[in-house]
Amino acid sequence: MKGSGATCERTRKERFIAHIMLGAWYKLGLFLLCYQIISLEGHPEGHYVAAVYEHRSILTPNPKVLTDRESALRLMNQNLDLYEEQVMAAAKEGVQIIVFPEDGIHGFNFTRDSLYPFLDFLPSLQSEEWNPCLEPYKFNDTEVLQRLSCMAIMGQMYLVANLGTKQPCNSSDAHCPADGRYQFNTNVVFSDNGTFVTSYRKQNLYFEYAFDTPPEVDYSTFDTPFAEKFGIFICFDILFFEPAVRLVKDYGVKHIVFTAAWMNQLPLLASIEIQQAFAVAFNVNVLAVNNHHPSLGMTGSGIHSPRRSFWYHNMESPEGKLIIAQISDPPADADLLWNDTSSTTESYREFFSKEPSCEENDIDAPCNKGWSHETVPSFHSTMMYDNFTLVPAWEEQGSLQVCSNSLCCYVDYQRHVLSDDFYALGVFDDLHTVHGTYYVQACALVKCGGPQFETCGHEITNATDTFDFHLWGNFSTSYVFPILLTSGMTLEIPGQVGWEGSHYFMRKNQLSEGLLTAALYGRWYERD
Ligand SMILES: *[C@@H]1O[C@H](CO)[C@@H](O)[C@H](O)[C@H]1NC(C)=O
Ligand SMILES: *[C@@H]1O[C@H](CO)[C@@H](O)[C@H](O)[C@H]1NC(C)=O
Ligand SMILES: *[C@@H]1O[C@H](CO)[C@@H](O)[C@H](O)[C@H]1NC(C)=O
Ligand SMILES: *[C@@H]1O[C@H](CO)[C@@H](O)[C@H](O)[C@H]1NC(C)=O
Ligand SMILES: *[C@@H]1O[C@H](CO)[C@@H](O)[C@H](O)[C@H]1NC(C)=O
Ligand SMILES: *[C@@H]1O[C@H](CO)[C@@H](O)[C@H](O)[C@H]1NC(C)=O
Ligand SMILES: *[C@@H]1O[C@H](CO)[C@@H](O)[C@H](O)[C@H]1NC(C)=O
Ligand SMILES: *[C@@H]1O[C@H](CO)[C@@H](O)[C@H](O)[C@H]1NC(C)=O
């Protein structure tokens, strides 16, 4: 293992140097080019200013009670008033695109019928252009769309928001619900002149009985003058292949707009964890926004690039939060990403030089000396409703292995601060069946809730022990999300991630905060 690891390091370093040299010439050219553009436009080429607003939606007190359109609009306008304030604040900062969260305008907990008055009509616009602010008469029941369109004009920015929409249907459509209409959980996009650009109807509903799944998957993308292609999806969608992964793989999307009303679930699925992991895994930017209701576990938004995250997570404040950041198109070559000071090959050599050395090409047969698993008995504990198999990470430094079904997870670790905190390496390779059914392959180094085995998987939010680690597993899926969460719900960017032979790995040295979770969260979509 160590031998082949070092070989990889060398080739990576060589490639890396080649990239730096190429990059230097390229950047010189770009710099001269940019200089002009900066002075003209105020933004360097390929950079743009994005905003997400973690909105605390004003909720109707009785979402299950039937109301009329007028009352529904009165409530929704209160939320839209707050959106407008944020758009104006963002405009002052030169924001070019702003994103508002799922359920931000109408709220949640409706029945199918009680939701109806809250729905805007969603026209199917093929080649037709529509500016709802300037052409309000074109379609009835589009008051919310009109206000959003007007806000885009006022702020002169692209605007993405989530609302409930309705589309009438009849028996000529075999999927048409019995009440003669579809009700969709919908994102809409307006351009900076208020034009309706595109819509996306949520594919993977999360027990939202008031809404219908669209009869066909929407692959919604849009272009802007300031960046490469954007793709859109909503909340629970992030855990599924359609449309999230396909947008990245087949539609060439480089920026994701992700709206959510996400209830955090530690240790692996807090919203900021999965948002950043998606950006790192797919080398895309993710403009992610959550609804803000800490009492429901909803907080956590961010503007994530593959190598940097501007995030917000706040369980105390009752208020919303506007996050603004300048980002650029993700680099075409993901190798360039792993250039932070904590992931130089030198520091890894030093780290690994403490380990027993093995023969090269033994990645599939790790040398026995390195593994203490034979002497460490595994135990079981429930993590996010899943029965993980774990081994304790008690030592100051060590090498651990734990397997379940066809997945084996490995970690080499070294602690810098050694407290009494109890950590364990866990594996899960099975169908997750609570709050949704989906197949998970996960390797997770977690801080446990206390000294007892059964506390591993508890929701912990602080830690003091910093680690250097190399975590890897022989995943059967190619879709693995690297998660790295540190004390106080802070994010750090992995030092390196990727494939080494048949193993997916993450390395990190010099964490600046205590470790909460280092995980490789794999989704084996075919097994769902
Ligand atoms: C939604 O309804 C469920 C029960 O139907 C309740 O437990 C939950 O608190 C409600 N949430 C809100 C935000 O009203
Ligand atoms: C809007 O509704 C009114 C009243 O029901 C109707 O007269 C009008 O034709 C509708 N307009 C459109 C564009 O559907
Ligand atoms: C059913 O809906 C289709 C498409 O919207 C429409 O063309 C057709 O006229 C409708 N049929 C009836 C019987 O209403
Ligand atoms: C408004 O923006 C859209 C999308 O960028 C563009 O296609 C359209 O030409 C613009 N319309 C006007 C009137 O500028
Ligand atoms: C990589 O590091 C070098 C030296 O610190 C720096 O000049 C370069 O901009 C970095 N590249 C990236 C892509 O961050
Ligand atoms: C977890 O799995 C192990 C081994 O299959 C089993 O012995 C244990 O009872 C399971 N635990 C729970 C809580 O289901
Ligand atoms: C992962 O490694 C273990 C142990 O070597 C092996 O039994 C298992 O078959 C491997 N899984 C895959 C998918 O290759
Ligand atoms: C960590 O969290 C525990 C439990 O919430 C708390 O008792 C402890 O004071 C916290 N420690 C720090 C350093 O914040």
Which labels suit this protein?
about 525 residues, alpha+beta, Nitrilase/N-carbamoyl-D-aminoacid amidohydrolase, 2 domains, seven-stranded mixed sheet, seven-stranded antiparallel sheet, 25 strands, about 30% strand, disordered N terminus, binds 2-acetamido-2-deoxy-beta-D-glucopyranose
General description of the model:
The chain has 528 residues and is α+β, with helices and mostly antiparallel strands. It folds into 2 domains: 8-330, 4-Layer Sandwich (Nitrilase/N-carbamoyl-D-aminoacid amidohydrolase), CATH 3.60.110.10; 339-527, no CATH class. 21% of the residues lie in helices and 31% in strands. It is built from 7 helices and 25 strands. The strands form 4 sheets. Strands 1, 2, 3, 4, 5, 6 and 13 form a 7-stranded mixed β-sheet that branches. It has a 7-stranded antiparallel β-sheet with strand order 14-15-18-19-25-21-22. It has a 6-stranded mixed β-sheet with strand order 7-8-9-10-11-12, covered by helices on one side. α2 packs parallel to α4 (143-155). The longest helix is centred in the N-terminal third of the chain and has 40 residues, at 2-41. The radius of gyration is 24 Å and the shape is globular. The chain starts with a helix and ends in a 5-residue tail after the last strand. One 2-acetamido-2-deoxy-beta-D-glucopyranose is lined by residues 191, 193, 195.
Summarize the model shown:
The chain is an alpha+beta fold. It contains seven helices and 25 strands. The strands form four sheets. Strands 1, 2, 3, 4, 5, 6 and 13 form a seven-stranded mixed sheet that branches. The protein has a seven-stranded antiparallel sheet with strand order 14-15-18-19-25-21-22. It has a six-stranded mixed sheet with strand order 7-8-9-10-11-12, with helices on one face.
